[in-house]
Task: inverse folding
């Protein structure tokens, strides 16, 4: 009788432990979301009152101070970075997926893996050593190069993985029609995988759009509207960092506005990428 | 014509050249000539395209070697001047005066980097493990699972400067600037990396293993503890390594809340500095050559450490996907 009781109490204990563990997992898993909600809520609350038309169409030096120069600068630097990294990234992804087994591909892919792990601030140091130090002046193009180096591995990975998913019969059908290699790749393979490639590109833009560290000593920042890519240029993340660490409450308000715009932009890019990925069933 | 194809010394385009010349001499129609010219052009383009692709493959290798060489070359003045004592010296003084000579030592920042990263890792592991188990085992499918996964991944997409700014405005007034504060914020930022990898690993555990354990009378907790976790152990470890790599190189959020103190940190509640935050703070304004090269050497150390950690992590993951 006591043995039976013992067993049943033991089983109850084990079931209890299992239930307790499940509760613990749920508690921890959901508490991850809390800081995110906190940040989103806080930034929307602090920044929303600052977003006005005049805030968006003036630069820092004009009477009603705004952040136009930072918004345009961010766009310009990211667009230049994309112009450099998108063609190289897509071609490199094609190269990896077309030459799967070779030794050279292995080393090259290892290089891309290394590139993906390089901290953003080190990429900034590289662009600084290559383009800022020799010319004795920070420039927007140095910032673009730094961002391009950071975008490359993401574009390469997504291109390669998308193209690997395509069936070989597509390729073979192209060759059977007598198409040369470049036309098979550009007219058959790439159009078939374009959605996956596009979402990789979007993801890479979303990643670098909020980067500050590589721009600190490359694009450097300035206070007025500038379109010269060989001169310093202001960007949104850099402007937030600059204003946030100054401590002046009026300037702090502008930083919240800028943070809200940056957050909005980055989240929009991310959600857009998610939608593409889901619609075309691409795995990244 | 046939013999030239068999001859390995003659390339495809050379062979075509011969064919074209042969055809040009013989009396063929204009139409045939044109089509031969066209295919010649196409083969040329094909060769150029293939070469471009391999040049880009080389470019990636060259880029990584170039990064390493640039870092070494730029930090040469500091390496020559301080040698190995750079890593052990506790003083960082870029402004030379009569009393304090100019000296650069990276020890406080090395220690600060390791301390913030490992603390952040310790704090984040239970959370990322919980997300991985919850989404991999308890709720692997359905809109709710997707919603939570997307929300967790959103954590990674928020720019680090915004985390820093938020920490400056919300956390600093409560806790003050310290290594602990920056670890807390870092911990939140690195949750998604280990979580999403762990989730996909846990999903890959074969159902028959779990079913065998259930049929022996195991409870869910016992299945997770003695079947699932041992099966994905090294995968989870790889995820943790990847988040460690992120934490080591994280710059803006840490720079804004760590307090920026160049002396050796006394405890986790004192202010400090990390390798990345030192570079971010001092490189924009540095003009002295030795100062710049000492800062680049910090970058070199950071580069080597993160690359090694990332490569180990990726090696483990790739072994996983092969099995």
Result:
């Amino acid at each position: 009788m006591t043995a039976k009781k013992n067993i049943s109490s033991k089983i109850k204990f084990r079931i209890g432990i299992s239930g307790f563990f499940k509760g613990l997992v749920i508690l921890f898993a959901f508490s991850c979301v809390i800081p995110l909600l906190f940040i989103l809520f806080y930034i929307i609350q602090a920044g929303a009152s600052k977003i006005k038309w005049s805030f968006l169409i003036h630069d820092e030096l004009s009477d009603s101070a705004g952040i136009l120069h930072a918004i345009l600068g961010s766009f310009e630097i990211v667009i230049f970075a994309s112009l450099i990294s998108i063609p190289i990234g897509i071609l490199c992804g094609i190269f990896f997926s077309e030459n799967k087994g070779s030794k050279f591909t292995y080393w090259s892919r290892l290089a891309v893996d290394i590139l993906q792990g390089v901290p953003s601030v080190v990429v900034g140091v590289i662009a600084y050593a290559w383009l800022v130090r020799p010319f004795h002046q920070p420039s927007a193009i140095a910032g673009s190069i730094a961002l391009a180096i950071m975008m490359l591995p993401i574009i390469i990975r997504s291109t390669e993985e998308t193209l690997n998913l395509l069936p070989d019969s597509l390729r073979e059908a192209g060759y059977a029609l007598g198409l040369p290699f470049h036309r098979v790749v550009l007219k058959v393979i790439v159009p078939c995988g374009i959605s996956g490639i596009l979402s990789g590109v979007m993801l890479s833009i979303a990643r670098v759009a909020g980067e500050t560290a590589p721009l600190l000593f490359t694009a450097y920042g300035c206070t007025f509207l500038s379109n010269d890519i060989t001169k310093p240029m202001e960007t949104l993340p850099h402007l937030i960092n600059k204003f946030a660490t100054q401590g002046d409450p009026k300037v702090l308000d502008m930083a919240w506005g800028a943070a809200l715009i940056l957050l909005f932009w980055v989240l929009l890019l991310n959600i857009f990428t998610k939608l593409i990925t889901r619609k075309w069933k691409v795995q990244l | 014509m046939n013999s030239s194809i068999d001859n390995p010394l003659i390339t495809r385009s050379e062979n075509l050249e011969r064919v074209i010349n042969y055809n040009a001499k013989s009396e063929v129609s204009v139409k045939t000539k044109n089509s031969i010219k066209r295919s010649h052009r196409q083969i040329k383009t094909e060769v150029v395209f293939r070469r471009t692709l391999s040049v880009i493959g080389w470019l990636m290798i060259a880029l990584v070697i170039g990064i390493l060489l640039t870092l070494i070359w730029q930090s040469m003045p500091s390496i020559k001047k301080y040698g190995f004592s750079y890593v052990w010296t506790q003083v960082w003084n870029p402004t030379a005066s009569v009393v304090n000579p100019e000296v650069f030592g990276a020890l406080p920042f090395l220690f600060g980097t390791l301390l913030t990263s490992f603390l952040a890792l310790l704090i984040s592991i239970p959370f990322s493990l919980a997300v991985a188990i919850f989404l991999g085992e308890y709720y692997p499918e359905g809109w709710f699972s997707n919603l939570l996964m997307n929300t967790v991944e959103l954590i990674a997409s928020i720019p680090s400067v915004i985390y820093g700014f938020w920490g400056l405005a919300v956390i600093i007034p409560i806790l003050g600037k310290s290594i602990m504060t920056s670890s807390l914020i870092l911990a939140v930022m690195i949750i998604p990396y280990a979580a999403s990898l762990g989730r996909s690993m846990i999903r890959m555990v074969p159902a028959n293993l779990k079913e065998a354990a259930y049929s022996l009378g195991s409870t869910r907790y016992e299945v997770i503890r003695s079947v699932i976790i041992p099966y994905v152990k090294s995968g989870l470890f790889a995820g943790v390594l990847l988040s460690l790599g992120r934490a080591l190189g994280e710059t803006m959020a840490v720079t804004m809340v760590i307090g920026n103190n160049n002396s050796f940190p006394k405890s986790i509640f004192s202010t400090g500095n990390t390798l990345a935050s030192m570079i971010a703070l001092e490189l924009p304004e540095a003009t002295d050559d030795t100062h710049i090269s000492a800062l680049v050497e910090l970058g070199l150390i950071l580069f080597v450490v993160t690359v090694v950690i990332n490569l180990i992590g990726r090696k483990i993951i790739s072994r996983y996907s092969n099995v």
